[in-house]
From TrEMBL:
Membrane topology (UniProt): Multi-pass membrane protein
Keywords: Membrane, Transmembrane, Transmembrane helix
Main localization category: membrane
GO MF annotation: an example: transmembrane transporter activity
A Gene Ontology term for the protein's cellular component: plasma membrane
Domain Major facilitator superfamily (MFS) profile: 1-61
Location in the cell: Cell membrane
Name by which UniProt lists this protein: Major facilitator superfamily (MFS) profile domain-containing protein
Keyword Transmembrane helix tagged: yes
InterPro entries hit by this protein: MFS_dom, MFS_trans_sf
Length: 61
């Protein structure tokens, strides 16, 4: 993401502030989701979670 983001922001005529918000939002999402995935891995099969993550990555990644 960090390699392509400057080009994407430039093509969309974004500002440095918007660039910073994109980075902040992605870091916040990772920070929030890490404990959630950790707790889920304690409750259900890790194999199932990996498969779910792969399936979720397809449309959202």
């Amino acid at each position: 993401m960090s390699n392509a983001l400057p080009t994407i922001i430039a093509d969309l005529e974004g500002t440095q502030t918007q660039y910073t918000w994109v980075i902040t939002a992605s870091l916040l999402a990772m920070t929030v989701s890490t404990p959630v995935w950790g707790k889920l891995s304690d409750l259900v099969s890790k194999k199932l979670l990996v498969q779910l993550a792969i399936i979720m990555f397809q449309p959202f990644g």
